Structure formats: C-alpha cells, structure tokens
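Dear H.,

Thanks for agreeing to be a second pair of eyes. The structure we're designing against is below in token form, covering all 363 positions.
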C-alpha cells in the first residue's frame, strides 16, 4: 500500500503562516499611519507616474506593437464576443498595458517608496554603492561588452541596502508572488552561494561598524501561501550549499552561513516585506507600512493621471487601434466559396486580427 510522502519540515514551516483579513486589526493599524508620510510618498510617486505611465503605452505605434499569442487572442475574442474594432482595441490595449505595468511597476515602487524608509533611522534604503560602482564601470562599453561583464558581477542581484547599527541589510526586490522563475532561482541561488562572503567582506571594509549582513528576498505583495514557491526553492538549495537553519522554532525560514555565522538569508512577502522595509531591525513595529504604501498609491494615481492627461491620451490610442483593426478586412468575394459560407463576419475579423502576429509591416 502506497504511503503519502511526508512534507519537508522546512518547507512546511515556510508555508505555515496564513493571513486573515480582520477589520478591527486594520483599523488599529491606521493609528500608526501618518498623513505626512503618506503625502511624501504620494508626491514622490505622482511625479513618477505622470512621467513614466504614458511610456507604458505611447511607445506602441501600431498593431505590430500589440502583437500577442494569436491562438489565445482568437480564443479570448471569441469567448468575450469582441467582434467590434473598438471593443477589440480596448482589449488589446488593456492587456498590453497591464503586462507592461506588471513588468515595470517594481522599479517605480523601488524609486518612489523604498527610499523613504526606514521609519526611525537616519540611514535610508539606497542602491548598494558597490552595485553602482559596477554599473558605472560599464559606461562607454558596447552592449556585448556589458553583457560579458555582467556575468562576473558580484552585486547584480542586490537592489537596495541600508545599515542600521552593527548590521547591514541587503534586499533583492521582486514585484510579486509569481515573478520569480526557474532561471532566476538558479541565478539568485548561485549569486548568494558565490558572493555572500564577498558581500560581507566588502561591507566590513566600507562600514567598519558592521559585523553581520542580512540578505532578504522581498516580494512586494502576496502571502506565504500564494507564491509559486520559487523563493522557497532558493532557500532549500542554500541548505545544501553552506547554510543551515538558525533556529526553526524562534526564527522559522531564517538561514545562516555555517562558515562565519555572520550572513543570514530569508524572505519577506507582502505585508512582512513592507514591515521589513519600514524597520528592518524591528519589523513588528512597522506592520502598518503596507497601508501607507497603498494609501499613497491611491492618492498618487489620482494626481498623476490628471497631471499627465492620461484619459485623453488613452482615448486617442484606443481610437488609433480601432481604426487600424477596422481596416483588417478581406473582401468576401475574394475568398473561396467554402470560407464565405462557413465563416461569418465576426470569425473572419478574429482570424484577421490573429494574423497580425505573423507580420512586421502593412498592418
């Protein structure tokens, strides 16, 4: 009789926490949110949005720039009955806009929000100076030379850094629970294995007061239960390569290197990520920071969208798409008889739009 495999205790501990929405808890957290910080965050992001959000769609000039999976496209159009050029254009625009923002929004979060914290420290999150030095060394090189040099980068996987007391915190920020893929798992795992001692040594050289570093994999939204598990795979692989659990009972999910016992690695997801950003040496005291971020985002979007006149610009882009889609037509008399008889106008429209995935010009 087959028996069910026992879950790995380490992995089970990583997935054990659940977050249950509680109105009273959230109301209580609002007491710690300050209007001044929300205003500061909103102003920072509003400027970023008004400049960068239009870039997410205005760089697309025509149908060729909205190319997508033709098979999924035709299926979606059929299911949603998108047989009108305006409706189909809106669908294409919205799909590409969402995907573009999903890719780029992590950078806007880093640029506008993370640098405003920690809460009670004179030091704020910054790009690691060592990473900036590596980047500056690439100036003037060709794209091919830059690609070759990046292979040897020590600090490439580190996004932000802050020093608090005798510890330096380094974080690699991913936008959400499904962002990390298998290739990134391998890259981040290899980076930590190969470079964690170098990170420690360079840190001690730059900051003599620092004795330890924390390397944190951060996801800006989601929960422990909703990720694709890739961040956990990184930790599991590290357990086989010079790291061990520091204390499963008191610090579940926290690894420490076995050689120096000065480098810790763990992950922070969603609400815990923002608490960590708010006060890395005492995240529990900053459990409300995710509320500040969401409030600032809501306020910034209203200001940024109005400033950039996005409604007018989006409507113009939708009209451009609708006209282009409306011109995708085959004269029915030019088609074989069996096609004219078997395919209605909507089906021929979906067919024509799917064909745009196979051409560069003339569409």
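And this is the sequence the design step returned. I haven't edited it by hand at all.
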């Amino acid at each position: 009789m087959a028996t069910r495999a026992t879950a790995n205790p380490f992995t089970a501990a990583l997935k054990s926490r659940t977050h249950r929405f509680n109105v009273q808890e959230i109301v209580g957290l609002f007491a710690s949110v300050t209007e001044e910080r929300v205003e500061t965050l909103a102003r920072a992001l509003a400027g970023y949005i008004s400049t960068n959000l239009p870039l997410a769609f205005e760089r697309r000039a025509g149908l060729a720039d909205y190319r997508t999976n033709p098979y999924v496209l035709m299926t979606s159009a059929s299911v949603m009955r998108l047989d009108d050029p305006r409706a189909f254009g809106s669908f294409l625009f919205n799909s590409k806009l969402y995907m573009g923002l999903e890719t780029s929004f992590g950078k806007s979060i880093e640029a506008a929000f993370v640098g405003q914290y920690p809460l009670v420290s004179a030091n704020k999150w910054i790009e690691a100076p060592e990473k900036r030095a590596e980047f500056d060394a690439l100036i003037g090189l060709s794209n091919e030379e830059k690609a070759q040099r990046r292979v040897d980068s020590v600090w490439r996987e580190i996004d932000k850094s802050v020093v608090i007391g005798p510890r330096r915190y380094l974080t690699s920020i991913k936008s959400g629970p499904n962002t990390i893929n298998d290739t990134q798992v391998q890259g981040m795992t290899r980076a930590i294995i190969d470079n964690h001692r170098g990170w420690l040594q360079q840190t001690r050289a730059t900051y003599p007061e620092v004795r330890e570093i924390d390397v944190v994999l951060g996801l800006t939204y989601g929960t422990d239960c909703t990720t694709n598990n890739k961040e956990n795979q990184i930790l599991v692989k590290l357990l086989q390569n010079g790291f061990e659990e520091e204390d499963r009972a008191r610090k579940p999910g926290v690894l420490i290197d076995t050689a120096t016992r000065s480098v810790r690695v763990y992950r922070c997801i969603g609400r815990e990520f923002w608490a960590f950003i708010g006060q890395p040496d005492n995240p529990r005291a900053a459990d409300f920071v995710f509320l500040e971020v969401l409030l600032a985002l809501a306020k910034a979007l209203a200001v940024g969208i109005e400033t950039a006149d996005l409604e007018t610009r989006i409507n113009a882009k939708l009209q451009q798409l609708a006209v282009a889609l409306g011109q995708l037509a085959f004269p029915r008399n030019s088609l074989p008889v069996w096609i004219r008889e078997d395919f209605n106008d909507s089906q021929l429209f979906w067919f024509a739009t799917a064909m745009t995935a196979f051409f560069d010009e003339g569409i």
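Two observations from my side: DSSP finds 15 helices and six strands in the chain. The two ends are 61 Å apart (CA to CA).

Warmly,
E.
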